[in-house]
Design goal:
Elements lengths: L5 E4 L44 E4 L2 E4 L4 H6 L6 H4 L3 E4 L3 E3 L7 E6 L5 E8 L3 E4 L5 E6 L2
Parallel strand pairs: 1-8
Antiparallel strand pairs: 2-3, 4-9, 5-8, 6-7, 6-9
């Protein structure tokens, strides 16, 4: 069986009904926290992300995919509740959504941690990339 691969290009400034900012994050570190430099402890994520360090990235407290397995799998196979706030994949300019059970918001970040491009509601079985990205923040669509 051959699965169709749909490639989608992202553009910064794409209009969406969902703003790029959570209302709050665990520990009271909500909006206004910027960059990739703050380690945060949050134990709500599934066992697969248990050993991974956590970072606060633009108000989202997420595990950082540092292992081969966590980078390869990302949020694939998880339920929306297990995915938590999302996942940060450093040293990455492209992601796939094969095996996903829900749509994702993808935020491609430059070397300083600032957004280069935002892709809203990326459906499963897609391949998305952004030239020049240094990291990708995967955020589950509500």
């Amino acid at each position: 069986m051959i699965l169709p691969i749909i490639v989608r290009r992202c553009l910064l400034g794409e209009v969406s009904e969902r703003p790029f900012a959570p209302t709050t994050s665990p520990g009271g570190r909500g909006r206004g926290v910027r960059g990739l430099d703050e380690d945060v402890d949050d134990s709500r994520d599934p066992n697969r992300f248990e050993e991974l360090p956590r970072r606060c990235v633009h108000g989202f407290v997420v595990p950082v995919a540092e292992t081969f397995r966590s980078r390869l799998l990302g949020l694939a196979g998880l339920s929306r509740e297990q995915a938590g706030a999302g996942l940060l994949i450093p040293r990455c300019a492209s992601v796939h959504t094969f095996g996903m059970r829900f749509d994702l918001d993808l935020v491609f970040l430059d070397r300083r941690g600032e957004p280069l491009a935002v892709c809203r509601r990326v459906a499963p079985c897609r391949l998305v990339w952004e030239h020049g990205a240094a990291a990708v923040l995967e955020i589950p669509w509500p």
